[in-house]
Write a structure and sequence with these properties.
The complex is a heterodimer of chains A (274) and B (289). Chain A is globular, with a radius of gyration of 19 Å. Chain A is built from eleven helices and ten strands. Helices cover 37% and strands 22% of the residues of chain A. In chain B, helix 4 packs across helix 12. Classes of the chains: A alpha/beta (274), B mainly alpha (289). At the A-B interface, helix 2 and helix 4 of A face helix 9 and helix 10 of B.
Chain lengths: 274, 289
């Protein structure tokens, strides 16, 4: 499916991503975990070509997509949809339009600029909204929706791109546990049903264990763990997270697990989130 | 006060003393500054008074002679005949307002286009940004009158076009600057969301930038329309036609009734525009929340 070959990103003297390599051979949900600043977001942005890598390759169908230019680059961005922590919808446009914007790559600039969308496009957007349980909001402005609804709309926009890959950058970090679970279940079902590989940055352990087939641990830009999620032991996780371990293990915070909410205690972890 | 210094650790106590002396010095400077300003104002008025042919005190009363004459002439006409003059100049007013509308619209469009290239967050090419910004500076650095006079001279003869052109250029410069500042203050997140879908730059601007800045654009443009109505009136004085030209002629003819009628029209228009822009702006802000 794709192969990451020693991708590196320098910010001045700091290596945000250092010689990262892995490959994915079948559709799966890959979770990337690590403390903040480990290079998770930077890597996803490199994959989607929003940031340029200093060095390295990303091979898809034997082509290095990091070297693509112009239309070919835009076409690659269409193929690997991105989901953001802050949803990144256009707040003043209605939900339906926001979803259809996922297909801008396929529409002529003049037609889309005048918002002439075809009946097929509208129907497909509505079907997607219905699938993820937000079709009743179709005519509302995106900014009036709750965080969980906005993230599901963002998933609809991503699906509208007809992607081969979905990159999710901390998709549940701004959501409450119930919505976080809905979003993670949506991503998991997309991967299973449509054979789409999902690469997902996460910062809580139980989410990674529950919803990911495979987990990659990053530390200071380097890969320190790469295996099926069941092999991710607490010991290894503690090493990956270092000083942030307490927060990562505290599953009540922006985690998908509803039960463990009762046992939230430390004020320290709360401060870390705020 | 003293006790607080003794309570403070040694280094902090010294800091406190230093702060105090700094404050004292500041207030001395302020007093000096006020004194010098007062001195300049007083001597300046005195100097101006001496260098004028007629002393200030005498000239001052004459300021009101001309308006008084005009008002008396208008009063003598009686309301119906004065109102007929108001109607007489309404087409001239419409011409002036039309000039302002057309040039504001043209300026709005060019400014909206150029602003995209003058904003660092959406135009990554630094050279383009610098060149566009400097040209916007250039466009608004010349007063409308100067541009209009140059074009009037080039065209030779009286025409509306130079005035429209002049206001258009100035409006482009003024609005372009404000628009690009609006763009640089937008939330970048929706823009990144669109970028990740692989859409073109134009689509990114259309859907990521425009919805965020358009209410602000309209608000600025209406303010500009107000300014441009005044500008096109003034340009009328220089042969651009419209109510400004009529006013200039009537002042020369010392036709008090008509001068007052024209002033009435102008003031009413400006007040009406002010109310209109308030109303539109409140609608736009209302639509936001």
């Amino acid at each position: 499916m794709f192969e990451v070959k020693s991708v590196t990103k320098d910010f001045g003297t700091v290596k945000a991503v250092n010689n990262l390599s892995f490959q994915s051979k079948q559709p799966e949900v890959i979770g990337i975990i690590g403390r903040s600043g480990a290079g998770k977001s930077t890597f996803l942005r490199i994959m989607n070509r929003m940031t340029t890598a200093t060095d390295g390759k990303l091979l898809v169908d034997d082509k290095d997509v990091l070297a693509l230019k112009g239309k070919a680059k835009l076409e690659w961005q269409r193929q690997c949809a991105m989901i953001f922590q802050q949803f990144n919808l256009v707040p003043r446009l209605d939900v339906l339009t926001n979803v259809i914007l996922g297909q801008l790559n396929k529409q002529s600039v003049l037609r889309s600029s005048l918002m002439f969308f075809t009946r097929e496009e509208r129907h497909e957007a509505l079907r997607l909204l219905d699938r993820f349980g937000v079709s009743h909001t179709a005519l509302q402005r995106a900014e009036t929706l709750s965080g969980g609804q906005q993230q599901r709309v963002a998933i609809c926009r991503a699906m509208m791109q007809k992607p081969r890959y979905i990159l999710a950058d901390e998709p549940i970090a701004s959501l409450d546990p119930l919505n976080a679970r809905l979003v993670m279940e949506a991503l998991q079902s997309i991967s299973r049903e449509e054979n789409i590989t999902v690469v997902c940055n996460l910062h809580t352990l139980d989410t990674a264990r529950t919803y990911c087939d495979r987990v990659i641990g990053m530390q200071a830009g380097e890969k320190v763990f790469d295996d099926v999620s069941s092999r991710l032991s607490d010991q290894v996780a503690r090493e990956i997270y270092g000083a942030e371990a307490e927060e990562a293990f505290e599953s009540a915070i922006t985690s998908t697990s509803l039960k463990s909410q009762v046992v939230r205690k430390p004020a320290l972890a709360e401060q870390a989130v705020v | 006060m003293n006790s607080s210094i003794t309570n403070l650790p040694n280094n902090l106590g010294r800091l406190e003393l230093e702060l105090k002396s700094l404050q004292r010095r500041k207030s001395i400077y302020t007093v000096f500054g006020i004194a010098i300003t007062a001195l300049i104002v007083v001597t300046g008025i005195d100097l101006a008074n001496e260098s004028n042919a007629t002393p200030f005190s005498q000239g001052f009363t004459k300021i009101f002679d001309f308006p008084k004459d005009m008002l008396v002439m208008a009063w003598d006409l009686g309301f119906t005949r004065w109102w007929a003059r108001v109607i007489e100049f309404t087409p001239d007013l419409l011409l002036t307002v039309n000039m302002a509308l057309l040039s504001t619209f043209l300026g709005f469009v060019t400014a909206a286009i150029l602003a995209c290239f003058a904003s660092q967050n959406i135009c990554r090419n630094k050279a383009v940004v610098v060149i566009t910004r400097r040209s916007l500076d250039l466009f608004r650095s010349f007063p409308e009158i100067v541009i209009a006079l140059i074009f009037l001279y080039l065209i030779g003869g009286k025409s509306l076009l130079p005035a429209v052109f002049a206001i258009w250029i100035h409006t482009t410069g003024a609005l372009g600057k404000l628009f690009s500042e609006a763009i640089e203050n937008i939330d970048i997140k929706p823009l990144e969301g669109l970028e990740s879908t692989g859409c073109s730059w134009i689509s990114k601007v259309r859907f990521g930038v425009l919805p965020q800045v358009l209410p602000l654009y309209f608000s600025y443009a209406i303010l500009r329309l107000e300014i441009n109505v005044r500008a096109s009136t003034i340009l009328g004085f220089f042969g651009a036609g419209g109510i400004g030209q009529a006013l200039s002629t009537m002042i020369q003819w010392r036709d008090g009734g008509r001068v007052v009628a024209i002033f009435f029209l102008l003031v009413t228009t400006i007040i009406a525009l002010d109310y209109l822009s308030d109303w539109v702006r409140s609608k736009l802000i209302g639509a936001r929340s």
